């Protein structure tokens, strides 16, 4: 397919607070978002003026949301995972899932599994239907190289569901065999991490996004390049790609124009294009030619993009950010 590098903003549904994550129900225009007000919201984006239906239950920021079969699963800084029915939002179960803040919640491609990662540096796999814990994946250090608490920011399944990648603040990436729970590979991407050499008490960055290529051979890693002032996200948006089985980097790109964290990565169905989204004060979308390893079309998002939900064709991309939920169209 041609890489859809023409990026057009359609509309923004303004929401109070910060919309931190988003998931889409199948190929419909119904989305679920997690917010800084501790609520999950359901919105039908097909409506002219979508009415946000609120689901309560969390006690702090909702930082991860996934749709798996007939369930919405959300996780937050309250360390809980909450299952609800997609049809009506009925509460199914609440699980004390982690010992520290949950950073991300994702569903396997077939909807049978939920993966959650948190600052206890553990990835947990759950049965999406029953909520039973299947196994814990432990491959990340509790402390950074400078002996401060680390963070486990993100995880992603391969398209066939056989592998799961996790990544942390210092840039350590682990690829897991989902069936066995064994490590299939591990490597480091330290350029995504900045340590303050002056005051020696503050660091920033980390790997914030992961995406397997459709053939499962490459793993894209997103974040921010080295930062001069660790109190600001003034580093260039940074994307690396790895042949993860060999632990070899295949390309590295600091975007020439956009600064901030790459919070989301999405491959086209043929693996030739790679969409990156994120930001700092403002936000961005940009496309990479994943074969030629070069930047293509890009656009200011006018919001710090925390998450995206889209289909393989990228006809519509739903973005969660500081201003609410925005709809973008992307064409070749």
Describe the protein's architecture and organization.
The chain is mainly beta and 332 residues long. The protein has a single domain, classed as YVTN repeat-like/Quinoprotein amine dehydrogenase (Methylamine Dehydrogenase, Chain H), CATH 2.130.10.10. The chain has no helices and 30 strands. A 4-stranded antiparallel β-sheet has the order 1-30-29-28, with no helix packed on it. A 4-stranded antiparallel β-sheet has the order 2-3-4-5, with no helix packed on it. Strands 6-7-8-9 form a 4-stranded antiparallel β-sheet, with no helix packed on it. The chain starts with 5 loop residues before the first strand and ends with a strand. The model has no long low-confidence stretch (mean pLDDT 94).
Label this structure with key terms:
332 residues, mainly beta, Methylamine Dehydrogenase, Chain H, 4-stranded antiparallel β-sheet
> Which segments are poorly predicted (pLDDT under 50) over 5 or more consecutive residues?
none
End-to-end span in angstroms?
9 Å
- Proportion of residues in extended strands: over 45%
**Radius of gyration, Cα only, in angstroms?**
18 Å
Summed up, the domain count is 1
Give the name of the CATH superfamily.
Answer: YVTN repeat-like/Quinoprotein amine dehydrogenase
Helix content: under 10%
In the CATH hierarchy, the architecture is 7 Propeller
List the secondary-structure elements in sequence, H or E. Answer: EEEEEEEEEEEEEEEEEEEEEEEEEEEEEE
Mean pLDDT: 94
Strands, total number: 30
CATH fold assignment? Methylamine Dehydrogenase, Chain H
